[in-house]
Specification:
This protein is mainly alpha-helical. The chain has helices spanning 33-41, 46-55, 60-69.
Length: 94
């Protein structure tokens, strides 16, 4: 079965290419410093705390529950992906 008929043929004559999302930079996430301090003072690593806060849009309670749900998963302590291409391990935020 060929899927070639579903492929994008490109911009046709008379059409205008719209700017793609890959050209747009996502604004950098701003961590709630008070929530980050609270999580790290509870003994969670900074990486795990930042990952949880980003996953839950700075909601401290949901972030804390998420960290507890990931007990035993050492990958929550990996550095956050800053959006740049890297060769390091990836972590599924879900």
């Amino acid at each position: 079965m060929s899927l070639e008929v579903l492929s994008f043929p490109g911009v046709k004559e008379g059409e205008e290419e719209l700017p793609g999302q890959e050209d747009e930079e996502e604004p950098e996430f701003e961590f709630n410093q008070e929530a980050l301090t609270q999580l790290t003072s509870m003994g969670f690593t900074e990486n795990a705390s930042k990952r949880a806060l980003k996953q839950h849009n700075n909601d401290l309670n949901n972030a804390m529950n998420w960290i507890f749900s990931k007990t035993g998963d050492d990958s929550i302590n990996l550095p956050l992906d800053d959006g740049k291409k890297s060769k390091g391990p990836k972590f599924d935020m879900g």
